[in-house]
Amino acid sequence: MYKINKPFVAFIYGLPCSGKTTLAMKLKEIFKDDINHIDGDDIRKILNKDLSYSKKDRIENHKRIIEIIKDSYKDKSVVVSIILPYEQSRILNKKLFKDNYIQIYLDCPLSECERRDTKGMYKKARFGEIINFTGVDGDFELSDNNDLNINTNNLDSFICTIQLIEFLIDKKFIEEKSTT
After folding, report:
1. Best label site of 56, 70, 130, 163, fewest CB within 10 Å?
2. How many Å apart are CA 69 and CA 80, to the nearest integer?
3. Residue 59: left (phi > 0), alpha (psi -120 to 50), or beta?
């Protein structure tokens, strides 16, 4: 169906419950073993249990994820689904991964993210059970330097995936395989 021309590192970022993991998993379904998917929630549960949600620890979490992927992306594309609330982290990504870096922001209003929250994280944050929760009492800095903005509020995951695929084709990261 599609062939990867040039390995890429795509960071899909946005508020909790904006659709980051869903979009990354759709891409993984299409490319199977040709890409690795790293989910910020999974990394936190497995490798970064020692970190809080303070700004300092969020930046450390990001740096640890970079350590995991910084050499492997040269052989295989990587899609990271992560909140990534600070612009300094995104600037670091661009500096490290250069032309292989793709920054994708999922635009979804806070009210819709809260409506989608099946784990009750926003509710816990609103009651003070989670401190520094992004979107409630934790910072989230928007970037003007996104390669792609996808509105996950009004579009279903299929259409969002198509937008991402079209972007990857347009930027020559991938191409459609010939059927002959």
Report:
1. 56
2. 9
3. alpha
Q: What are the backbone angles phi and psi of residue 143, rounded to the nearest 5°?
A: -110, 145
Instruction: Tell me the chain's radius of gyration from C-alpha atoms.
Output: 16
Q: What burial class does residue 88 get, using C-beta atoms within 10 Å of its C-beta: 0-12 exposed, 13-18 middle, 19+ buried?
A: exposed
pLDDT tens sequence across 109-154: 999 999 999 999 999 999 999 999 999 999 999 999 999 999 999 8
Residue 17: what residue type? C
CATH superfamily of 7-109+140-167: P-loop containing nucleotide triphosphate hydrolases (3.40.50.300)
Q: Is the pTM here over 0.90, yes or no? A: yes
The alpha carbon torsion through 135, 139, 144, 147 (nearest 10 deg) reads: -60
Q: Is the sign of the CA dihedral 136, 138, 143, 147 positive or negative?
A: negative
